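=== RUN LOG ===
request id: a7f3
mode: sequence -> structure
chains: 1
length: 483
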Amino acid sequence: MEKSKKVFGNELPLSVYHKAVRNKEKFMRKYGDDSDKIYHLDTVPAPAIGNLLGVKNIIISDKSGICFNEKSIVIGNIRMGFGHYRISMAIASAAHAMGYDPYWFDLHSFKETVGGKVIGEQNRLYSMGSKLSQKSKLFNKTVWEPLNSEGFRKLSYNSADQKTAELMTAVFKEIPKNIPYIATHVWPAQAAVHAGLTNVVNVIPDNWPMALHLSEGAVHTVQTPSAYLGYRALRGMDKKRPLRPMPERDIAYTGHYVDHELVSNIDEDCRRRKERVKNKAPKRWLMTVGGAGAQKNIFMTIIKRLLPQIKRGRAVLLINVGDHAAVWHELVKEIPQMKQFLTEHFDDFSETASFCAKAYDGKISGIHAFCHSDIFAAVYSTNLLMRISDVLITKPSELSFYPVPKLMIKRVGGHEAWGAIRAAEIGDGTYECTTPAETAAMLSLIQHNGDIIVKMCDNIMRARDAGVYDGAYKVVELAVKNK
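=== RESULT ===
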């Protein structure tokens, strides 16, 4: 079915459709067309989370070796930053806890396919734009912010993505058409629908409605009531005309996508945070650093501001740089005085897990840096570290929705602003601190006033009681409902 000419009954101009066709043809000239090829699939245990969450990683093989059963759920995703992998892990965790077998299906990892090459190219462009936005205020203001907030919002943008996703279907041939399939990025969702899968759930990450995330033929899920209304109405996706809304059957509000290990331990984790405040223990700060090196000045400000508190034993800083060792070395070079307090935990996930287990019940001090070249370990390390932390320092992206007290630093891309708005409304995080000075002031406020952490913990528990963090479970329920 042609999906580039209309979206939920809203006709697109022929010029938009023809542009989408030309875009697809450009990729075909560059990478070819493997739509008639059969890629055989097999599985291996997923690194880091294979044993923890029972996740099987789908790979391309010389012969078919994959065996699905009635408990199988496929999680379609791509590596684009850490966010979509993080959401996939939340879904896998919930599925595993509910008795299902999660299969990891990363379209970006299939480098030999046309779809993998197309995704790789677009990922490189997005990463380049993200880095440039942090180096040039003019580029950020005139290009990057408008693109991420309004450009991706336009209904016409969906046409090009739908047409390009037709090039990503070849690898689906050995995936059963009726299997519960959960996509944590729109391209795997669109590709699955084009490949003929009939039970597709499209997990939308953002709290700001954008046509970029639409995959007609799938059930769309959102994390917040405001996102539900925005997507249902296709809010602002074509400012020149009124649009037909998305049908009720095509969208569901689920709540925040959060891992079972975090949701099921909210009470105990918050109790321990409040106990540490009561006992005047060192405040534990967790800082996540993206690979684009975005917000470097803010990170440097945070580290320098915390160093005196770390020296006095009043603060502990945990830094996860994911799989980006170069970013970490840049920070150490800029702030060499960190070294006297520093312990590095690099490329040993079992040691990282052991450190977190000991820190949960025991005392820690100084600065601890974490870096894992394996993407699974790099992402899941933050999950382990959140449970032993008092405050998470993060940009308002996917981590905005996690049940841990948060200090929100400046966004990277206009669409992220609404993640901070959601956290501020619930009360489990601050508003977005947009400058290094504002960030430093908020850091100092929380460092010297433990009641803020206590209040955020109380708000987290109230939100938990209201089902706010149950989104991952509900996504799985939707996927298996029509099995």
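=== NOTES ===
The first strand starts at residue 6 and ends at 7.
The two ends are 22 Å apart (CA to CA).
=== END ===
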